[in-house]
């Protein structure tokens, strides 16, 4: 069995590639990083280390790589694959769609009717569905009709904290021990083979919203408040009681939403929150706030981890005060190396606070959450100026 995985980065090597290899797949990574591609081709293996007391190591073998810039090679790999997965970042999906489309075209034109599942393992709601739209835009009507019969794009949720890596070995990757990969079975082709280690569910929405609105909402709060306080890592942020309390308070808000919306047991959900806060504190990791806060425009967008739960909670009659405060903190995240952070700062400078909030969150200026973001932003700025 051969899996083609786009993105030989942290989650690609540290989770998806590892799990697929353990499930018996030969893994062909597709990446645009020449050094990583060359090393994978040369060594055909790499080592994953678990961030725990034991520091266990696993050798991942049976892997290779293809240069993602070579469209013909990418299409050939997809044409031969039994499975395609991605972990490139949701905004990159459009850039890998051409190679996938040409690969699907080759499979279908060869008369090959073997089923193909394409699973986007990105932090987004409906990631595979988004990828399907990009791919279908690049297929003609006849091929789209055939693809409907033989190719499926089941949505997924993936959870494992994999920080930026700073090893001499460009393939080495250190990951937290915890992991979860959930796939929507209802979106798969009939009779599809399941991947060992993946949790299949009939309805993904409760899983992806619980993950995104707890792990990722809490994570970005720790990153944005930590950044304002000058913390370098999430571990440092969480060691500051005031930040840890803000993170917890924000997760009480998303928890109120999730338990009401999906009927989760409140005590179970409280335990889920507790486990996640423990994961953020993992002393064997140094997870940089700049990674966790990266791409604040994506994180402030209407369907992501801050605005979406805030709006839903507001519609339920709740008060997303801490979520609004976290959005205000996101507006103060300004690392020079982050193009989205720089675009936000430019907008704040040229358009002003209120228009910037509306432009990036889609919340109109008279929306109560918009007003709370303004309030918290002004207060956070004032506080920062006094320090
Ligand atoms: N790191 C985590 O803790 C974690 C956990 C769960 C989900 N995710 C999600 O996984 C995705 C990847 O995150 P990451 O942390 O692994 O990022 P990363 O930057 O480490 O990896 C992304 C990889 O994609 C490659 N890439 C970029 N453009 C490409 C292209 N056109 N074709 C092929 N490859 C390309 C990059 O070279 C890089 O190797 C994101 O959507 C992220 O939200 C990350
Ligand atoms: O990858 P992002 O930018 O969507 O979010 C940053 C982190 O919160 C994220 O990568 C987590 O580490 C991961 O989602 C844990 O499963």
From TrEMBL:
Please list the residue ranges annotated as the Mannitol dehydrogenase C-terminal domain.
Answer: 204-345
MF terms per GO, please? mannitol-1-phosphate 5-dehydrogenase activity
The highest taxon in the source lineage is: Bacteria
Q: State the Gene3D superfamilies in the record.
A: N-(1-d-carboxylethyl)-l-norvaline Dehydrogenase, domain 2, NAD(P)-binding Rossmann-like Domain
EC assignment: the record states 1.1.1.17
Occurrences of domain Mannitol dehydrogenase N-terminal (ranges):
1-195
Q: Does the keyword NAD apply?
A: yes
Please name the Pfam families in this protein's record. Answer: Mannitol_dh, Mannitol_dh_C
UniProt entry keywords in alphabetical sequence: NAD, Oxidoreductase
Tell me the residue numbers annotated for binding NAD(+): 3-14
| Catalysed reaction, written as an equation | D-mannitol 1-phosphate + NAD(+) = beta-D-fructose 6-phosphate + NADH + H(+)
Does the keyword Oxidoreductase belong to this entry? yes
Q: Which family does it belong to?
A: Belongs to the mannitol dehydrogenase family.
Its name, as the record gives it, is: Mannitol-1-phosphate 5-dehydrogenase
